[in-house]
Amino acid sequence: MIKTISSREVYRNQWTSVREDVIERENGRRGIYGVVDKDPASIIIPLDRTAEGEFVYLVEQYRYTVGGRYWEFPQGGWERADVVPEELARGELKEETGLVAEKMTPLAALQIAYGVMNQKQYVFLAEGLTQGEAEPDEEENDLVLRRVSVDELEAMMLDGRMVDNCSVAAWGLYRLWRERGPRG
């Protein structure tokens, strides 16, 4: 176990806080741990089954931290700790894509990059989709929505067009869930 000796916030904005903790390891040696704290988020797999096959909706947006535009599943948070996971997922789906889901299935609650960040991400499967009007926030004004086949999605993951680890993890989780059958 690692024991926290002291903790101090070193930075905060509306999306993120960063703290620096003085820690003591089991062997008695002390060190410093930097932690990024973020409120819960959701990621949504919008799945559309038709006579032509299975399709998913992706969004492409500019990601400042890595300096490029990338494809990913709709995802995000509301900068509040007190969220109802399904409401958050439905809200993010509508905000980014305009899609409304008849059925939302929770698949898991994961931790994003827990070696450096404390943020829970709820994974949902969205089905029975109806297209409405998107309501992007100011950081999402450049979103591009695209419907792709499942084969194309998986090709994007393998050839580097999709590099978002949360999207890849959510898809892998969905595939396991689908193959093993719903639990609960």
Radius of gyration: 18 Å
Q: Kindly give the count of domains.
A: 2
Strand content: over 45%
Main sheet properties? 7 strands, mixed
Order of helices and strands: EEEEEEEHEEEEHH
Main CATH class of the largest domain: Alpha Beta
Average pLDDT level: 94
Low-confidence stretches: none
Write up what this structure looks like.
The protein is α+β, with helices and mostly antiparallel strands and about 180 residues long. The chain has 2 domains: about 5-35; about 40-180, Nucleoside Triphosphate Pyrophosphohydrolase (Alpha-Beta Complex), CATH 3.90.79. Helices cover about 20% and strands about 50% of the residues. The chain has 3 helices and 11 strands. The strands form 2 sheets. Strands 4, 5, 6, 7, 8, 10 and 11 form a 7-stranded mixed beta sheet that branches. It has a 4-stranded mixed beta sheet with strand order 1-2-3-9, with no helix packed on it. The two termini are about 30 Å apart. The model has no long low-confidence stretch (mean pLDDT about 95).
Structure described in brief:
With 184 residues, the chain is α+β, with helices and mostly antiparallel strands. The protein has helices at residues 85-97, 150-159, 165-180; strands spanning 3-12, 17-24, 30-37, 41-50, 53-63, 68-72, 75-77, 99-111, 117-118, 120-131, 144-149.
List the helices and strands and how they pair.
Layout: E1 3-12, E2 17-24, E3 30-37, E4 41-50, E5 53-63, E6 68-72, E7 75-77, H1 85-97, E8 99-111, E9 117-118, E10 120-131, E11 144-149, H2 150-159, H3 165-180
Parallel strand pairs: 3-9, 4-10
Antiparallel strand pairs: 1-2, 2-3, 4-5, 4-7, 5-6, 5-11, 8-10
